């Protein structure tokens, strides 16, 4: 029997009571239970084994076994994070000061399902590197998973991750990162601009995605950013993508950008550019 967060044993007695205290915010009961089990500040964390129920719908793999009858540290934290009990979270981290959140995928899930910037900041104060938690060997990370959530719920959490040094270029493979994830998640311009300012790669893939999604605001930001050093071929491809979009606003933005680049001499000698000069006028 497992919990929705990957708990690998059936809690009973004091173990169940500890989890309940984390969910309810009953700090007095949790302190008493810890004392009864001999858990003191500086105790060694209990990591247990986390598994993602999405990949094991029939239950935990044979190798997933509990280390003790006391709930794992990450499970206690996940309960407290899900319930947004800051005092409980602080107490757990003070009790287990060496606990590494980089072995706590369940805590990531709890935060994403119950986003709260104040709770996240407490976790990051304990371990700043948690902002760059990598979920899936370069394809997913805390930040990209957060970008996939509804903007009206996740934007404050995204600000905290970015303000605390989250790796903006992890996830979604080469040319992806948080910028691509934010576009797919329809995040607001303030988040996309912040990702770029933090060093997010400006790739043709991200610009194409912005064009395809009708994000004229993002197209303008990326094309005119000082770190946009796309070569002539990439510029042609962007122009073609704008044509195909038939979005007059995006076409106008690409037009203005293309004219600036031409006037700067960046496209001098580009026969294709000269041949098709004025392409946008046919579409406006």
Topology diagram in text:
Blueprint: H1 13-24, H2 27-36, H3 73-83, H4 86-95, H5 105-113, H6 117-126, H7 142-147, H8 151-163, H9 177-184, H10 189-197, H11 204-212, H12 216-223, H13 232-245, H14 248-263, H15 271-275
Helix pairs in contact: 1-2, 1-3, 3-4, 3-5, 4-6, 9-10, 9-11, 10-12, 11-13, 12-14, 13-14
Strands, total number: 0
The low-confidence parts are 1-10, 60-67
Count every helix, treating DSSP H or I runs of 4 or more residues as helices. 15
For the termini, the CA-CA separation is 62 Å
Radius of gyration: 24 Å
Strand content: under 5%
Which whole number gives the mean pLDDT? 86
Number of structural units classed as domains: 3
Largest sheet: none
Give, in order, the helices and strands: HHHHHHHHHHHHHHH
Which structural category do the helix and sheet elements fall into? mainly alpha
What is the overall silhouette? elongated
Helix content: 40-55%
What would a concise description of this structure say?
The model is unreliable at 1-10 and 60-67 (pLDDT under 50). The chain contains 15 helices and no strands.
Structure characterization notes:
- This is Ankyrin.
- It comes from Coniochaeta ligniaria NRRL 30616.
- There is one protein chain.
- The protein has 15 helices and no strands.
- The protein is mainly α and 284 residues long.
- It has 3 domains: 1-126, no CATH class; 129-201, no CATH class; 204-284, no CATH class.
- α4 (86-95) packs parallel to α6 (117-126) and α12 packs parallel to α14.
- The model is unreliable at 1-10 and 60-67 (pLDDT under 50).
Key terms for this structure?
mainly alpha; single chain; disordered N terminus; elongated; 284 residues; 3 domains
């Amino acid at each position: 029997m497992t919990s929705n967060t990957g708990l690998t044993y059936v809690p009973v007695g004091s173990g169940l009571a500890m989890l309940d205290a984390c969910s309810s915010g009953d700090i007095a009961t949790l302190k008493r239970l810890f004392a009864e089990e001999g858990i003191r500040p500086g105790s060694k964390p209990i990591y247990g084994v986390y598994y993602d129920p999405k990949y094991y719908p029939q239950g935990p793999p044979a190798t997933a076994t509990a280390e003790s009858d006391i709930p794992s540290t990450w499970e206690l934290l996940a309960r407290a994070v899900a319930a947004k009990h800051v005092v409980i979270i602080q107490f757990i981290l003070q009790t287990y000061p060496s606990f590494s959140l980089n072995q706590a995928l369940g805590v990531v899930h709890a935060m994403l399902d119950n986003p709260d910037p104040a709770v996240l900041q407490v976790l990051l104060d304990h371990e700043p590197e948690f902002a760059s938690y990598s979920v899936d060997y370069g394809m997913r990370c805390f930040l990209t998973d957060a970008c996939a959530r509804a903007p009206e719920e996740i934007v404050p959490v995204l600000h905290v991750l970015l303000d605390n040094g989250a790796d903006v270029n992890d996830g979604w493979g080469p040319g992806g990162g948080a910028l691509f994830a934010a576009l797919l998640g329809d995040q607001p311009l303030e988040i996309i601009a912040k990702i770029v300012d933090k060093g997010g790669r400006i790739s043709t893939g991200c610009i194409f995605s912005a064009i395809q999604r009708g994000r004229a605001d993002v197209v303008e930001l990326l094309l005119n950013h000082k770190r946009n050093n796309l070569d002539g071929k990439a510029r042609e491809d962007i122009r073609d993508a704008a044509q195909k979009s038939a979005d007059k606003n995006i076409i106008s933005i690409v037009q203005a950008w293309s004219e600036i680049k031409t006037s700067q001499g960046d496209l001098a000698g580009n026969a294709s550019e000269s041949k098709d000069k004025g392409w946008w006028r046919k579409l406006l």
